[in-house]
Amino acid sequence: MSNQNQQVVLQLNKINKIFNPNTPLANHVLHDISLQVSRGELVALVGTSGSGKSTLLNVMGLLDVSSSGELYIQDHLTQGLSEQQRTQLRSESIGFVFQFHHLINAFSALENVLMPLMLRYGKPSKEQTEYAKYLLNEVGLSKFIYKPTNKLSGGQQQRVAIARALVSRPALVLADEPTGNLDTQTADEVFNLFERFNIEHQCAIVIVTHDPRLSARCPRTIRLDDGRIVYDGASVDLPTNFQAT
Amino acid sequence: MLFVNRLLNLRSLHNLHSSLWIEWRIALRFLADNPLQTLLISVAISVGAAVIVFITALMLGLQNNMINKTLGTQAHIRIEATQQHNIFSEIAEGRYVWALESPRAQRLQTINNWQQVRDTLDKYPQLNAVSPLISGPAFAQKGTARSSVALVGIDPKRYHGIINLQEYLLEGEFSVTASDVMIGSQLAEDLGLRTGDKLRLDAGDNRQSVMNVAGIFELGVRELDSRYVYTGLKQSQTLLNLPGGVTLIEIKISDVFVADYWARRLQKLTGLYVQSWMDSNAQLLNGLQSQTMTTQIIRVFVAMSVIFGIASVLAVSVVQRTREIGILRAMGSSQQQILRVFLLQGGLLGLAGSLLGVLLGYLMVQGFNSAGQRLFEIVLEPSMLLSAITIATVAGVVAAMVPARRAAKYDPAVAIRYV
């Protein structure tokens, strides 16, 4: 493997996504999406509602299958993989953070963070538990590690979700409006965490956001309109008419 | 690419082995997370299990009672001498013979080599009792009163295993010798006999003997109580003019329901005429079979309602857990893991419910047994409780199959958006 290939975490070549193909309800959501994300990048994915951001994120996260095109995760071509292999690759390489934090309420904060590891390896080792505690400490929740997650505030829950996304040391973290339902101050705090882990762990992060303040803090912005990439470059150069969402 | 594939497959094999831990954990948490639902369905399952346990035990008790009542006073297998029949001379090929056959009169005849047959049968541990005896018609006479009776000459030690006459004794004592006889209560009444009275037995052709009534028994079967006269083997042999012979070998076996099999086996072994209680009690057998079938039908329907109960609760639970299933899938759980989580929940519900149900069934049986007047006692066998628990647990897993498959097939991208 060349050095350059190792650097590329995510590569999309002419990805198309059509819902309900070959029916009167066919809906072409993504048109020829091609992009690359390298190690340590922090990317904002912006666009109006219905522009296909979430669909694109799901495809990148192997939660959904593209209709055509090629998707590489760390050099692995994902087309043609079985459901099981996709699950495997997902659990090894990708961490998720969702808008509604999506924790499992039946479990404590610590168990939620450990969940990706437990699903893969069974009973967590001491090191894994220590690392999860370390992450919870890093996101400022050391006092709440044994609390059921539905006893935590929205911002706290989202921070648990971030710790969970990082616990398997993924090369890629995908965040779907992680600050969408948080107040400004909490949103800033959560975003600070993303920035920090992006630098500390050198994982690539793609964040879907409607908040121009936050997208401006990402070095790179990709803008999607009607399922097409209309801008992909430095956030500072983003044309003003693309900023408002 | 090939290498990647192989690597992934190896890893997934490893996962299958190591990850059941988390499936247990998630299944238990999901059940504990919704305690009311879990409790309600557990109670529903337990009622079903209790009904199954109770009705099975009840039927078993009833049937055992009927079998004991019926088979208590008769042998399971009877071996008789081969019936006598006419033998035709050989017919040359190509010729036909019209024959008018009059069947042979079956005179009382002894079983040839019965000592050998007895000794051979003694070697089978499954045959609990083997008792050669001689039985034939006679008249009992007291004064001018006469009654036709069946003389039964027995070896008391061996006959004890067939019918324990001691248990049925009304008065007197159990003694059958050359001079002592035991008679049934009805015969005693018919002839006005008491213990210690004399009784004349007449087996025809001037073979007569005056005997002492040592004891009076009551088997509870009118036919037997009015006709049976037990004597010592030798005495009956003399009276019936079959010195040293026996006409019957009666047998009791440990499992009454394989009597047919043993009858066929002994038939082959001895070449004699062998009948099991099943041949001579076709009606009882038929009754038992219909009972068993009825029980079976009730059990199947109760089990079905339990299974559908579990299935419907899990179906609801799967919908309630849609979002969590989506999260788990996004966190890297495989479809098989999700499947197993819900199968486990079904199994756990079945297990918990049936444990409770077995306890309930046990209490019901105790209640039945201690409730005043009853014809028989129900015995609860541990093996039945164990099988009830096993069946309910397996039923839980089976019931969970449809909902679990549905959960596993959820599209994670859709499931995760479900609120």
Largest interface: A-B, 35 and 38 residues
Q: Unreliable segments of chain B (pLDDT under 50, ≥5 consecutive)?
A: 1-8
In helices, the fraction of residues of chain A equals 25-40%
* CATH top-level class of chain A: Alpha Beta
What integer is the average pLDDT of chain A?
86
Low-pLDDT runs of 5+ residues of chain A are 1-5
The second-level CATH architecture of chain A is: 3-Layer(aba) Sandwich
The major sheet of chain B is characterized as: 6 strands, mixed, barrel
CATH topology of chain A: Rossmann fold
SS-derived structural category of chain A: alpha/beta
H/I helix tally of chain A: 9
Q: How many structural domains can be distinguished in the coordinates of chain B?
A: 2
Relative helix content of chain B:
55-70%
Q: Outline the biggest β-sheet of chain A.
A: 6 strands, mixed
Radius of gyration of chain B: 34 Å
Topology, pairings included?
The complex is a heterodimer of chains A (245) and B (419).
Chain A: H1 3-7, E1 8-19, E2 27-38, E3 42-46, H2 53-60, E4 68-73, E5 76-77, H3 83-93, E6 94-97, H4 109-121, H5 126-138, H6 154-167, E7 172-176, H7 184-201, E8 204-208, H8 212-217, E9 220-225, E10 228-234, H9 240-243
Parallel strand pairs in A: 3-8, 3-9, 6-7, 7-8
Antiparallel strand pairs in A: 1-2, 1-4, 4-5, 9-10
Helix pairs in contact in A: 4-5, 4-6, 5-6, 6-7
Chain B: H1 2-18, H2 20-33, H3 35-71, E1 77-80, H4 114-122, E2 127-142, E3 145-154, H5 156-159, H6 165-168, E4 169-172, E5 180-184, H7 185-191, E6 198-202, E7 208-217, H8 222-227, E8 228-232, H9 233-239, E9 248-253, H10 259-270, E10 273-276, H11 277-280, H12 282-320, H13 322-330, H14 335-370, H15 382-409, H16 412-415
Parallel strand pairs in B: 3-8, 5-7
Antiparallel strand pairs in B: 1-9, 1-10, 2-3, 2-6, 2-9, 4-7, 5-8, 6-7
Helix pairs in contact in B: 2-14, 3-12, 3-14, 3-15, 12-14, 12-15, 14-15
